[in-house]
Design goal:
Elements (H helix, E strand, L loop, with lengths): L4 H17 L2 E6 L5 H11 L4 E5 L2 H8 L16 E6 L3 H15 L3 E7 L2 E3 L1 H9 L3 H44 L1
Antiparallel strand pairs: 1-3, 1-4, 2-3, 4-5
């Protein structure tokens, strides 16, 4: 029994809603994966703020139609497609997929779309190599803390330097007298 028109429209609406909340989408060829393996992938992606959805390419084409952010995905819609839509941790989601792919060895990343641009697999790997949001915040905090420490040491050094200069002047005056 096929899907009803209402059911198809509901699927497209769900895809649109998920895409509106997402920053990045990448497509994988999932052929050969078991239901348990797809569930494992979904479980790995969920903590990273990502959703893996298996849908017909025509449904995704309808969902992205007229949306400049996602319309570029049309050139990646071929074969068996699972769509990973990432809301939060872009690099973490890609890393989670890469770990899954190393274990399963059955999937292939076709590419992705971000801000209306098609991303190749190398682009996605570059995003995965970027530090996480938490790491960047820690680096910035460390840099700010370092500047504050140097400033405090510098301010502290002014009176000490002045005191040493006065001490040297007074020693020269005593030697001269």
């Amino acid at each position: 029994m096929g899907r009803t028109l209402a059911n198809k429209k509901e699927i497209v609406a769900d895809l649109k809603e998920t895409l509106n909340e997402s920053q990045l989408m990448f497509i994988i060829n999932y052929s050969g994966l078991t239901v348990a393996e797809i569930s494992d992938l979904r479980n790995r992606l969920r903590p990273k703020g990502a959703v893996c959805q298996v849908a017909k390419n025509t449904f995704m084409a309808k969902a992205t139609e007229g949306d400049d952010r996602w319309q570029a995905v049309s050139e990646l819609l071929k074969g068996d497609s699972a769509f990973v839509m990432v809301k939060d941790d872009l690099g973490g989601a890609i890393k989670a997929y890469q770990e899954f792919q190393k274990a399963a060895k059955k999937t292939e990343m076709r590419g992705g779309v971000m801000d209306g641009r098609v991303l190749k697999e190398a682009d996605l790997k570059a995003i995965a190599d970027l530090p996480s949001k938490e790491q960047l915040i820690a680096q910035i905090a460390g840099a700010i803390n370092g500047v504050a420490t140097k400033l405090a040491v510098g301010i502290n050094e002014v009176p000490s330097g002045l005191a040493r200069a006065l001490q040297q002047l007074s020693e020269k005056d005593q030697e001269a007298a």
